[in-house]
Design brief:
Helices cover 71% and strands 0% of the residues. With 356 residues, it is mostly helical. Helix 1 runs parallel beside helix 5 and helix 1 packs across helix 6. The longest helix is centred in the N-terminal third of the chain and has 44 residues, at 2-45.
């Protein structure tokens, strides 16, 4: 019996190892296919029109992003944020933090390499050539894949079950696709850096998370919407000892979610507080762009660890709120297609969960 046991045990270990390797390959393939699907939806949306298409003299956000490339590669850094004869701040002046400027500078240099006329100072204003559109759409897709996709993947893998479905929902949320690849912006960078912040916080790399959040805030100032949650989470961990809890409570007099997070800094409370914080800013701020709904929406996506009707309803409502902007930009077909796709994904998820 002992000899038989010694012979069969290695075979069992080999089978178990092969099964684990097969499972890993299958999971990796799922994530890869999800990313590939998301890229296809983004690229197909990019074939439509965009903010300011054929709408002189100011055009829209497409021209703003191109103009920032023009400014950063042709003017010294000291003039980027200052009104001068060469930099008219009334014509899409650079009004985002420095990391956005450096991002524009990087792609502006790449534009100069391919075709200097795309970013020629003053003379390139309002240029809408097909080759430029292809280049600009590519810059968003590259930024999206490098920052947003990788952050979503890291966050999904940081969860116990790897949460492939969460990764799929995060990549296929219509709001991000419509605004960045339809309307034309680079929200994927700041939102991706924020998701990276959340991932590092879950891994207890608090200093690295703080650095990532500073980068996110340095790219887009609207990330201040998430700042109270970040602040309370980190402060709560610093003031975790019982002797300091009373003093910590006296310092905080804002939202109940922040107080809960301060006294109990868990990953779940952090996600909820982040959603409450960003949504409160969106609802009660004096001047809010409809595009700012992406900030609480990405926080809602991070809470989506299981099929939740409330979160799904909010995500659909946030997408529908972008409809007037999409009509203005000529993205009606893309809007209905992506929204219907996301709705079918939600229905399919609930049907599957009900069967299970």
């Amino acid at each position: 019996m002992s000899k038989k046991f010694k012979i069969t045990r290695p075979h069992a270990q080999v089978k178990r190892r092969k099964a684990n390797e097969t499972g890993k390959v299958s999971t990796t393939l799922k994530f890869f296919l999800a990313a590939l699907t998301a890229i296809c939806f983004r690229w197909s949306t990019g074939f439509g029109t965009y903010s300011g298409f054929n709408n002189p003299p100011m055009y829209g956000d497409f021209e703003a992003q191109r103009h920032w490339m023009e400014i950063t590669v042709n003017l010294p850094l000291s003039e980027w944020y200052i009104h001068t004869n060469r930099n008219d701040l009334m014509y899409w002046g650079l009004d985002y933090p420095p990391l956005t400027a450096y991002h524009s500078f990087l792609f502006g240099k790449l534009a100069q390499y391919f075709n200097a006329s795309w970013v020629e100072l003053h003379k390139s204003r309002g240029f809408e050539g097909t080759d430029l559109k292809l280049f600009m759409r590519s810059t968003v897709l590259i930024s999206d894949v490098l920052v947003f996709f990788t952050s979503c993947y890291a966050y999904s893998k940081s969860l116990p079950s790897h949460m492939y479905l969460l990764f799929l929902f995060m990549l296929l949320y219509p709001g991000n696709i419509l605004i960045d690849h339809g309307h034309f912006q680079f929200n994927c960078v700041s939102l991706g850096l924020y998701i990276g912040t959340c991932t590092l916080l879950h891994w207890n790399y608090d200093i690295a998370a703080a650095v990532f959040f500073v980068f996110s805030l340095s790219f887009k100032q609207m990330e201040l919407y998430h700042a109270p949650a970040i602040f309370c989470y980190l402060l709560g961990k610093c003031l975790y000892s019982p002797l300091k809890k009373g003093a910590a409570c006296t310092l905080i007099s804002i939202l109940p979610g922040c107080i809960t997070l301060l006294t109990n800094p868990t990953a779940e409370n952090f996600n909820r507080c982040s959603l409450i914080s960003s949504l409160s800013f969106f609802l009660f701020s004096y001047h809010v762009h409809e595009k700012s709904i992406l900030i609480p929406a990405v926080s809602a996506l991070l809470t989506l660890k299981s099929p939740t009707l409330t979160v799904f309803t909010f995500l659909l409502a946030s997408t529908i709120s972008l409809f007037p902007l999409c009509v203005k930009d000529g993205l009606t077909v893309a809007f209905f297609s992506l929204t219907f796709m996301f709705y079918c994904l939600i229905v399919g998820t609930f049907e599957t969960s009900c069967k299970l």
